[in-house]
Amino acid sequence: MNGYDSQIIDHLKDRKFKSILDVGCGDGDLIRAIQEEFPRVSVAGCDISDKCKYCDITKKLPYNANSYDIVCTAAVLIYFSDEMAERILRKIKRVARKEVFFVEMHNDKETSIDYSIRDYEKILSELKFKNIQCEPLKCGWPGANNCKDCGYLISAKV
Ligand SMILES: C[S@@+](CC[C@H](N)C(=O)[O-])C[C@H]1O[C@@H](n2cnc3c(N)ncnc32)[C@H](O)[C@@H]1O
Hints:
By secondary structure, the chain is of the alpha/beta class. The protein has one domain (about 5-155): Rossmann fold. Helix content is about 25%, strand content about 30%. The protein contains 4 helices and 9 strands. The chain has helices spanning about 5-15, 30-35, 80-95, 120-125, and strands spanning about 20-25, 40-45, 55, 70-75, 95-105, 105-110, 115, 130-135, 150-155. It has a 7-stranded mixed sheet, with helices on both faces. The longest helix has 14 residues, at about 80-95. S-adenosylmethionine binds near residues 2, 26 and 55.
């Protein structure tokens, strides 16, 4: 599990949901951890790599509207421009029935990666998300377990 996966599991413990989709899931560690913790929940993941179901988040997502209670993405939006991140959030919103959340990092003291975190509260408000919440990540990139204030777990209702 990534450092932030356990924080995501804790975040989900407060929610009622029957299905969850992880967009840009990589090798699927997070969805496996969610399935283990919530065995009755239907989990799915997609990624542009060949490790799981194919999707390209810059294009239309291969899912029906409102098809998952929660849609999440972790450490993916940071790679895209502000404009594309906003377009991706719009696509994610289409697929989500209740909530979206995503993990984004802006600083990692261990690897010296230093990205600027964008103003997600503003972007999500403009996209008409509700109940926008940002909580600091307890730890950031995999392996950076001592990293404090690395980024945020951002959630919003659709
Ligand atoms: C830093 S990894 C994060 C993986 C995983 N979410 C995690 O937290 O470990 C970024 C992921 O974004 C995926 N990705 C990059 N561009 C993408 C695109 N256009 N569509 C879908 N996935 C993409 C990559 O293949 C990679 O798995």
